[in-house]
C-alpha cells in the first residue's frame, strides 16, 4: 500500500488496474525526470492507466506526452513491474494496481506539465532516488540507475518491450 492511501476494506469489491510509465532520461547528461503532484505533495514518475486496445509501450509514451509535454522520447526497454493495493472511497472499491515501467530517453529538457503537476526536476540518478516519494518508485528508479550505468548493449534494449 502506498503512503497516504487507505487500507483494503473486507466489504468492498476488488478492481484490478493496469498502468504504464517511464523513467525519462535526458540523454546528454543522464539526468532523470521527476514530476511533483501538487495536491498530494509527492514526487513521482510519469505514469497512468492503459486505455483499452493500447499496448503498454503506447500507454507509457502517451502518459509521458500528457504529463510532461515531451513528445520526443525513445522507449528502449521495460525495466520493472510494481504492484500495490489501496481503497478508493469515492468508488467504494479496493484497487489492485500493477504498473509497468520503461526506460525512456529524450534529447530535450523542455517540459510542459499537465495542470495537476506544479513543478519538475531533472536530477542525477542518486538524487532522483532520494527524492522520489514512494518506495515502489524508488525500486524502479534504482533499476533505471543500474541500467544507465551498465547497459547490456549501449543505447539499445536488452530484449523486446511488451506490446
UniProtKB/TrEMBL annotation:
<dbReference type="GO" id="GO:0006754">
    <property type="term" value="P:ATP biosynthetic process"/>
</dbReference>
<feature type="region of interest" description="Disordered">
    <location>
        <begin position="142"/>
        <end position="163"/>
    </location>
</feature>
<dbReference type="GO" id="GO:0004081">
    <property type="term" value="F:bis(5'-nucleosyl)-tetraphosphatase (asymmetrical) activity"/>
</dbReference>
<dbReference type="InterPro" id="IPR015797">
    <property type="entry name" value="NUDIX_hydrolase-like_dom_sf"/>
</dbReference>
<protein>
    <recommendedName>
        <fullName>Bis(5'-nucleosyl)-tetraphosphatase [asymmetrical]</fullName>
    </recommendedName>
</protein>
<comment type="similarity">
    <text>Belongs to the Nudix hydrolase family.</text>
</comment>
<dbReference type="Pfam" id="PF00293">
    <property type="entry name" value="NUDIX"/>
</dbReference>
<dbReference type="GO" id="GO:0006167">
    <property type="term" value="P:AMP biosynthetic process"/>
</dbReference>
<dbReference type="InterPro" id="IPR020084">
    <property type="entry name" value="NUDIX_hydrolase_CS"/>
</dbReference>
<feature type="compositionally biased region" description="Low complexity">
    <location>
        <begin position="151"/>
        <end position="163"/>
    </location>
</feature>
<keyword id="KW-0547">Nucleotide-binding</keyword>
<dbReference type="InterPro" id="IPR051325">
    <property type="entry name" value="Nudix_hydrolase_domain"/>
</dbReference>
<dbReference type="InterPro" id="IPR020476">
    <property type="entry name" value="Nudix_hydrolase"/>
</dbReference>
<dbReference type="InterPro" id="IPR000086">
    <property type="entry name" value="NUDIX_hydrolase_dom"/>
</dbReference>
<keyword id="KW-0378">Hydrolase</keyword>
<dbReference type="GO" id="GO:0000166">
    <property type="term" value="F:nucleotide binding"/>
</dbReference>
<dbReference type="InterPro" id="IPR003565">
    <property type="entry name" value="Tetra_PHTase"/>
</dbReference>
<feature type="domain" description="Nudix hydrolase">
    <location>
        <begin position="15"/>
        <end position="146"/>
    </location>
</feature>
